[in-house]
Amino acid sequence: MNSPRYSSGKSKILVLIKYLGLISFFAVVFAPLAALFYEAARSLFGVPGAWSDFGARRLFLLLRSAGLAAGVASCVAVLGVLIASVLIHWNTGRVARLRWLAVVPALLPPYVHAMAWDASFFRLNVLAKSAGFGSVQVDGWLAAWWVQVMALLPIAVGLSLLSFETVKPKLIEAALVHRPELDVLNRVVLPLAAPVILAGAGIVFVLSLADYTIPSLFLVNVYPLEIFAEFSAGSDPGRAMLLSLPLLLVTLLVMVLVQLPIRRVVDASSGRAGRWTVSPIWSGWFGALQVFSLLILTLQLAVPLVELMIKAGGWPAIFTAVSYAKSEIIYTFIIALLVALFCLLIGLAPAMELNRSGKGSGIWWLLLALPLAVPASLVGIGLITVWNQPVLQHFYSSLLMPVMAGLARFAPLGALIIFAQLRRIDPLLLDAARVAQKSPWQAWTQVGLPLLRPGLVAAALVSFALTAGELGATLLVAPPGQATLTMRIYNYLHYGASGSVAGLCLLMVTAGLAAGAASVFAMTRSSSR
Amino acid sequence: MPPKKLISIFILAACGLLLLSILLSGCTSGNRERKVVVYTSVDQHYSEPVLKKFEQDTGIKVLPVYDVEAAKTTGLVNRLIAEKKQPQADVFWNSEFVQTMLLKEAGVLASYRSPSAQGIPVAFCDQEGFWTGFGGRARVLIVNTDLVEQADFPRSIFDLTSERWSGQEVGIAYPLFGTSATHAAALYAVLGAQEGKRFYDTLKTKGVQVVEGNSVVRDLVAQGRLKAGLTDTDDAFQAVSDGAPVKIVVPDQEGIGVFIIPNTVALVAGAPNPEEAGMMIDYLLSAAVENDLTSSGFIQAPLHAGAVNDEAADWSGFKKMDVNFESVYQNLENVKYELSQIFIR
Amino acid sequence: MIETRQVAKKYGEVPVLAGISFSVPERGALAVMGPSGSGKTTLLRLIAGLEPPDEGEIRLGGRLASSNNFLLPPYRRDVGMVFQSPALWPHMTVAENVRYGLKGIPRGAAKGRVEELLERMGIGELRNRFPGEISGGQARRVALARALAPRPRFLLLDEPLTNVEAQLKEKLILLIREEKEKHGATLVCVTHERSEAQRLAEQVVVLEGGLIK
Q1: Any idea what the Cα angle at residue C30 is, between residues C26 and C34, rounded to 5°?
Q2: Helix (H) or strand (E) holding A33
Q3: Residue contact C87–A174, C-beta within 8 A
């Protein structure tokens, strides 16, 4: 009989790599935040009365913003679950992976959703008027809520789909023998998928809470606008950061609340990733809800695309816009690609820490959620404070700074997505690899990473998309003479070149869909072997 | 594809890109070509041709960073302040003046008296030479001609508060950011704090549409979703040249006069390329650039005597608001504080 | 009665069942044996209604349950099933797992039934534990209790007694037979062991290459 191999001596490299990953993650994500907290502390103790003007008005504003974000998050979570409950059945052949394309519209920057829906509301209004219904004013709050739901839906659909796939098919089948589908969904699938679904809702909440562009386009005042007003009035990042603290607190609170009801379950049963083999017959009302949610998913993509196509004014105009922005397109692509790659390199270690059970994981959870709630321009200031040093001039004036901006803002999200995939992996498989390995490195490269692949691809895609659309932090650290596509789009936006804006946005979405489809097919080929 | 291969490809790609990016960064900062770094809040649409021309004329490479309206002027000014210890920029070209004055106070700027500034009225230059003004833009009313008869045009910004217009029909940009904030500070300076606040209070209680930026005001009026609005001339002229059914009204000719906001240009303290920075400032302050910017529609009130070569752009006949820049700047913080209480709620 | 007529199933291009016909009389019991990959598990899944057959039909109690264009949902077939792996729901306790199939039964009665089964299986003290906290052999017994609890008319067992020690196995076989007799269930059992097959069923068939040998 073979004696078991104990590899504690050999895994030093892996431990080293892990700590290297953790240290890089901290340096990239938390160093700028630490600089900001330092500034905030200086303001708090240095400026008398810095805190005193947090009056009823700001509190009310904060509560309303949190209310909007909660409304958006809960609606998006329900829609995400409904849509995922349909998409999960598209599980045979190539269509199986194509359903992940539902996530690609995340590439559309929020302002594109806002403009498209604003134009559609206006069209509806004109139509209603001409049909004799009088003018129908879409309420600002309602509009802001709806457009944020549209903009954030793809992220929720993706995470819900991922969460459904974490549920082992055997567990579903064992329940299907006893109870109808809806009951199985309710009692077995949703409780098991809840951690990722709720995490998704939490992330959507934070993204909605930190966004002021969509609300202010619909004349709705939210708390982040107050931070910007403060920042632009005083140009004091400390005070602005101080004003952001309530946002961070609300974020922390929500992230804790979201994780509380989840009973952390150790699911050691083995089996392939989820697949419902029988097409279920849903009861009438649930089926109707599903159809409704699919309709919304379609609208979510169709309205921006149609509006963009109308505005872009034909292919020649698009080609012109694209050729003018060629260097920005290439530049943005390189930056977003680097962010996607580095996000995986530095996101893996914290994801693994999060996956360990115990008290530490809860702290990690909060640590990863926190950076998402810091306003982008403040992150930019933090990055300048940390990296604009005499010895780092080559680094600071290079394209690596926008890469750092993307990482500082979105690597935590990448880590959360990798964590979602880690949860799906049967620990037995990793144990088996560790027993049979010739080296720890081999266990990771041949078993661990391949099992993690879907999560890595998802993390890379999401961080790529968000980086391509990042503005606030990139603007502050982009090297002189270089601009990203989003900076260009905003410039066009200002002097009303909506045709060019539409053209470039269409390009972004088309490229996203193409890249998404390509990676989907690559995944299908490798996994069907 | 076998997993092993996939992972080696991934690692190779990461390393390759890292190398490439380091190479690229070496290219941009390593060689000794003459260059000047310009941070500008002027729209790329207007500023890029001017900077390109400088590059062509002098052979000095211009590395610009353009601000965007959506960043709510928190962009470049804050970047300049944050980079103070290790400045990256040589020249700051601002489309208005209060942020420049703020930078002076923050110790970001250095004094530079340009020979090109001769002929620019002293009132538009900082006494200590930290900045120089040129090419003024005006704050104007833009009116949709499909919806409003010529006879009913508003003639003053105070008409926006009159009973003739419902709040739903007229719009302004948030008076907390950019030129709208500067305008508010100027009104406070001219009318007094009480009257200034009353004006904005009335706008708010009336339910005037307060939108994201001046370009949004322009778009809403051009689309006929608003009858009239308050915006910058460059935005308004854009709508005119796009053929939208709009007319520009220069307001308050019988009253306080139209508010003119000059561009300002300044040298950054500790600029990495001071010599080139000086050349750039001299160039921007030249009558020729003012001319070009007037022709392109960005400025309407050139400050160089006799710089106007375009009759349509001659604003010399208009009554301008008589306001001291220093008092506008002094009012700004209070204005932003009061107005955020009024408008962000 | 469980009846299959020319049932065939392919996964992709690979035929798994190539025309299976048999019938198990009411209250009867059939053991299915055969090498790995011979389609035994697939056969049970088809009977349970977890997948539709490509060809042929399956009748339960004389009623059509599956054909290539009709599929009665599993929960309406009155089947109880033990899977190859215990497939316990990790977020429910042992008792909750067993009680899941007892719908439409008064609370007290359901609780009594769960208690009774767990006691008879010798795992009564585990009722409040989660599946992650019990051993593999215990999990198997919970899975068996879960399948038996609703007193199904058709009982499908996929290697129910692997990983169970010999002494206990004897006890469980008796228990299965007792439950089956008491409630008049019809049984199909997949197993590797001939002795187990003979103890549980009066009929034994051997599957090989998708056909009954």
Answers
A1: 160
A2: helix A31-46
A3: yes
pLDDT bracket for residue B69 (50, 70, 90)? low
From chain A residues 217-236, the ones with a CB under 8 A of any chain B CB are: 217, 219, 221, 225-226, 228-235
Higher pLDDT, A5 or C3: C3
The answer to whether the Cβ–Cβ distance between A495 and B45 falls below 8 Å is: yes
- A96 vs A509 pLDDT, higher one: A509
The two three-digit tokens of residue A220, written as one number: 């709705």
Q: How far apart are the first and last CA of chain B?
A: 57
A176 interface with C at CB cutoff 8 Å: yes
Given an 8 Å threshold on Cβ–Cβ distance, is A480 in contact with B38?
yes
In chain A, pLDDT over 90 holds for what percent of residues? 15
Q: Mark yes or no for CB contact A480/B225 under 8 Å.
A: no
The CATH class given to the B137-259+331-342 domain equals alpha beta
Q: Give the model's confidence band at A9: pLDDT under 50 very low, under 70 low, under 90 confident, else very high.
A: very low
pLDDT score for A343:
92
- A219, A225, A227, A235, best to mutate vs chain B, most B CBs in 10 Å: A235
Q: How does pLDDT run across A206-262, given as a tens digit for each residue?
A: 889 988 888 887 888 888 888 877 777 667 788 888 888 888 888 888 877 877 655
Query: What token pair was written down for A82?
Result: 């409904």
* Mutation to test the A interface, candidates C89, C134, C135, most A Cβ within 10 Å: C89
* Closest to A258 in 3D by CA, of A209, A204, A212: A204
Classify domain B35-135+261-312 by CATH architecture.
3-Layer(aba) Sandwich (3.40)
pLDDT tens for each residue of A103-120:
777 777 777 788 888 888
Q: Provide the shortest C-alpha distance from residue C173 to chain A (in Å).
A: 21
Three-class secondary structure of residue A200 per DSSP = helix
> Are A281 and A378 part of one and the same domain?
no
Q: In angstroms, what CA-CA distances link C122 with A442, B177, C116, C137?
A: 44, 75, 10, 11
Domain of A280 in residue numbering reads as 54-91+151-302
Task: Classify the C-alpha dihedral B52-B58-B61-B62 as positive or negative.
Answer: negative
Q: Are residues A63 and A40 in the same domain?
A: no
Q: What's phi and psi for C55, nearest 5 deg?
A: -140, 165
Q: What DSSP line would sit under A377-437, residue for residue? A: HHHHHHHHHHH--GGGHHHHTSTHHHHHHHHHHHHHHHHHHHHHHHHHS-HHHHHHHHHH-
pLDDT in tens, A435-462: 666 666 666 777 777 777 777 887 887 7
A–B CB contacts, 8 A cutoff, strictly below: 213
Structure tokens at A261: 């009801």
Q: Are residues A440 and A527 in the same domain?
A: yes
A391 CB neighbour count, 10 Å cutoff: 7
Written as one string, the DSSP assignment of A304-361 is HHHHHHHHHTSHHHHHHHHHHTHHHHHHHHHHHHHHHHHHHHHHHHHHHHHHS-SHHH
pTM: 0.83
Residue-wise pLDDT for A173-220, tens only, equals 889 888 888 888 888 888 888 877 888 888 899 889 988 888 887 888
Instruction: Tell me what pLDDT residue A7 has.
Output: 41
Alpha helices in C24-92 (DSSP H): 40-48
Tell me the pLDDT tens digit for each residue of B90-133. Answer: 999 998 898 899 999 999 999 999 999 888 888 889 999 999 99
The domain limits of chain B are 35-135+261-312, 137-259+331-342
The C-alpha atoms of residue A251 and residue A373 are separated, in whole angstroms, by: 7
pLDDT of residue A200: 85
Q: Which 3 state secondary structure label does DSSP give B33?
A: coil
| Element housing C183 (H / E) | helix C166-183
